[in-house]
Amino acid sequence: MVAELGGGQHPVIALHGWFGSGAAWRPLQPHLDGSRFRYAFPDYRGYGERIEEPGAHSLAEAAQDVLALADELGFERFSLVGHSMGGAVMQRVLADAPHRVWALVGISPVPASGVPFDEQGWALFTGAVDEPGNRRAILDLTTGNRLTGVWLDAAVRHSLEHSDRRAFGDYLEAWAKADFQAEIQGNPVPVKVIVGEHDPALGAETMRATFQQHYPNCELETLTNAGHYAIDETPIALATSIERFLAAV
Which pLDDT belongs to residue 1? Predict the structure, then answer.
């Protein structure tokens, strides 16, 4: 069962990040306009309600599952919102079925060209598969070392409780080493990327070098007082930004 919100005429599928799940969108949901939009919040295989479902845990598989969900819900065309890893999944959907996608909104999204890591960074992220402390350190780093430990601990718990260990490790390889830029380069789909001012890796500079080079119709917005997790940090501002953009396409 996929969580849904609203009954509007514009279908939107929201794709969660590496540390998230379909339930991770809950802080945003009270601020969304269900009269204009119809949202769906799926889990990937190995996450949330699908935590025990087997799979390859690849971007291609996740994208095909999104298209199957769209068929099931009767979404002939739809927009996609993707947070972090979900930003890579939404672009894989676009590459596979460009005729079905109205618009893309990326929230600190992973580019189609992946994310380069140095040796120390890769050790931190791969270590997070088994070590909760690494997950906490990543959350702290990517939000600018500025949020309460209570939030950090809760986000770690959500990640541990809503993702399968193997799936978590497989998806890291999938999004970090993504390499399908050539398949989306120059696509005219309307795109908005929203980043937090305190995100050290997937911030405005990275978006200018990737998304705005890949897509000719791409606009960029930086949210103040947010890092990588604007869904939690600035939900009202984020919901407003998403829906103003989607309402205009």
Answer: 82
Q: Which of 227, 199, 168, 184 is nearest to 43 (CA)?
A: 168
Query: DSSP readout, 164-199?
Result: -HHHHHHHHHHHHT---HHHHTT----EEEEEETT-
Instruction: Give the Cα separation of 77 and 104 in Å (integer).
Output: 12
What pLDDT does 109 receive? 98
pLDDT tens, position by position, 232-245: 999 999 999 999 99
Structure tokens belonging to residue 233: 């940090």
- What is the identity of the amino acid at 146? R
pTM over 0.85: yes
* Per-residue pLDDT at 146: 98
Q: Which two tokens stand for residue 219?
A: 């606009």
3-class SS at 40?
strand
Q: Please, are residues 38 and 4 in contact by the beta-carbon 8 Å criterion?
A: yes
